[in-house]
Each structure stands twice: as structure tokens, then as C-alpha cells.
Amino acid sequence: MESGLDIHTARALLEWQIELGVTEAIGDAPVDRYALPDTGPKSKKPTAKPATPVKSESLDAALVAQQAATSAGTLSDLRAAMEAFDLCELKRGARQLVFADGTPCSPVMIIGEAPGRGEDREGKPFVGRAGQLLDRMLAAIDLNRTKNVYITNVLPWRPPQNRDPKPEEIGMMGPFLERHVALAKPKVLVVMGNISCQAVLGKRGITRLRGQWNQAFDLPVLPMFHPAYLLRQPQMKKQAWADLLELKSWLRTDK
């Protein structure tokens, strides 16, 4: 049956889909290829063999990441180790590594989700409108990334089309994040957004988790709304302000 497409048009459509980030083709319903009827002597192709179990590449990558992260004795070593880590596919589509911003050994360490377009371009987390809002939020409780705040993300490379990070990507880069926290030596962690809560706390549901103290990496953890979310939902700034006051109260008590 004729498809109605010449080979050049079909190839152009395929390249366009790949550029958009398509990685596999699926139908509306699953197809069991082994249950299809035998086509008989007309089929020239050899009979497909059942697939054999494949060793988990993401698990292997996480082990390599664990070894690389553990060997890093300083933040500079950790950055170099992450720059050299080639097992995460996100690295191939990103412009550069987005490592951190702010002041190491600050009392507050903020963990965002993943770099966006601006972060990928500038090499720093929380830039653009979301970064400006974050700076205003911090300034309201006497915090500043040049003085007493350190900032990083769950993932150091921008996902294509700013999609959410995949669980295997979060798991793969988890050892680097844990080592990052250990080397930065904060007193408290602020995790912003669902992805950060999933990576640090193993939980999702930021509207339920925000403002509620948790524990991870032997540190107190306060989940908060991501500034990008607040830009889309400005009516939630009241809750964000309450969380900032909670953080300010904790810092005052810790002194």
C-alpha cells in the first residue's frame, strides 16, 4: 500500500521529530509482535528472537557517579568530576554544566530542579525572571547569594524542551547532589519544587509538603514553591511568604 510520501518528505518529517526530542515511536495500543501470524514464505526476514534481559545502564551509571562523587574532596573536584561524567544523555544536548552559584559554607543551601534556557546559557542556577524573584524573596529575610546563600540544582544539565527530569536521570545524578551538600556544608536545605522534593526527600506533592520540615542528608529540609511556579500562580505568594518567615525563624533560633 502506498504511503503517499516520497522518501525525501518522509526523511524530513523524521528529522523534524527527532529535533523536537522524539526518542521512540508508539501507537495508540500495545502490539505483541510475537503474537502476529506467520507471514509464510513471503517473509524474507529471519524470525525475531525473544529479547534477553538488558543490564540496567542507569544503575551502572549511578555506580560510576557514586565513585566519582565520593572521590571529590572539594567543590572544585566535584565540579571537575561532573564535567567529566559522560553517562548522562542530558549532557549531549546542553550547552554547559550548571554547577552552582552563591557562597559555599553558607547557612542556607537552595536546591532547585534543573536548568532552563537562561541557566544553560549563563551557566548559573536561578537566572532570568525566576532568579530575580528568588533574589527578592531572599532579600526580604536578609539573605543574599553573595553573602549567606548557596544554590544548586538536582540536575546540572538542561533537559530538552525544559521537560521534567526522568526518574533515572535523578537517580543517576543523585550521588553528585549528595556529595555537593556534604562539601557545601550548609545548616539547612531549602528544596524548591516537586523535582527537588522527589530527589531529596523521595516525595512529591509540593502544595502538601511546602512549609513542613523534613530531614535528609542529616540536615533539616524545608520544601518551598519554586519561583517559576509563583510567577505562574502569583496568588500562592502568600504561602511562600509564610515559608520564608518560617526559614527566618529557624535561622534566628539556630544562632
What does this structure look like?
- The protein has a single domain, classed as Uracil-DNA glycosylase-like domain (Uracil-DNA Glycosylase, subunit E).
- The protein contains eleven helices and six strands.
- The protein has helices at 7-19, 57-71, 75-84, 90-93, 117-122, 128-139, 167-184, 194-201, 206-209, 227-232, 237-254, and strands at 101-102, 108-112, 149-153, 188-192, 214-216, 219-224.
- It has a six-stranded mixed sheet, sandwiched between helices.
- Helix 2 packs antiparallel against helix 3 and helix 2 packs parallel to helix 7.
- It is globular and about 70 Å long.
Q: What's the short version?
A:
The protein is an alpha/beta fold and 255 residues long. It has 11 helices and 6 strands.
